[in-house]
Amino acid sequence: MSHLWFRCENELRVYGFEAASMPSVVAPDSFLLLLLQITGVILLAVGVWGKLTLGTYISLIAENSTNAPYVLIGTGTTIIVFGLFGCFATCRGSPWMLKLYAMFLSLVFLAELVAGISGFVFRHEIKDTFLRTYTEAIQNYNKNDERSHAVDNVQESLSCCGIQSYTNWSTSPYFFKHGIPTSCCMNSSDCNTQDLRNMTVAATKVNQKGCYDLVTSFMETNMGIIAGVAFGIAFSQLIGMLLACCLSRFITANQYEMV
């Protein structure tokens, strides 16, 4: 942070501004530039992690959300690039660059605000979509496609089976040929196809809890946290936008005084 301040101080002195009059604006703006860079790195990291780790889960949450990791990666990269632009604009003391940077921050602020509000308001629709897509995944389960792998991952990681319970598998075409998937088993070494094709016997071999309640409970618990983080990041960018505008006005006023 101190390195950035000294760099800005030297740049501004070249343009004729006294550094003593600038700390009240530049120092907070420099801190928020660093904060913006950190949020960009976080979004980028979450996007990469989501693509590598959660790719199979995303297809079960919503039909059109498979590009979500790419959106996070793109947003994080854009924030990092514009954060560097903000550093350059601050150090150069360029009013039009600072105004452009403030405009970018305002767009990001509005986008994050809308995303946070939409995620909270439409959380029930997300649950309904998950129920529909998860039901379809069970009905079309074949153990080979992406959604089938996602179903297996959910059932294994959450120790659950089916939608509301393991009995939901009794209506799946897969059940009539192979029985309940082995991903439902409490102990995979104690499960065989013959047992899994018999609902009475399978009741003692598979997890009893359904996956829908566990997944939606997780979503309900964490939706407020996610919305809070989105609003927090948006608020920091709003302050950065205001400081960038103040710095731009300050530099413009000094230029007129110098003339």
TrEMBL record:
GO cellular-component term (any): plasma membrane
Topology class, membrane: Multi-pass membrane protein
Compartments it resides in: Membrane
Pfam families: Tetraspanin
Protein name, as recorded: Tetraspanin
Function, as annotated: May be involved in cell proliferation and cell motility.
Alphabetized PROSITE patterns for the sequence: TM4_1
Disulfide bonds: C161-C184
Sequence intervals crossing the membrane: 31-50, 70-88, 100-122, 225-251
Source organism superkingdom: Eukaryota
Similarity comment: Belongs to the tetraspanin (TM4SF) family.
Organism in which the protein naturally occurs: Columba livia (Rock dove)
Keywords linked to the UniProt accession: Disulfide bond, Glycoprotein, Membrane, Transmembrane, Transmembrane helix
Chief localization: membrane
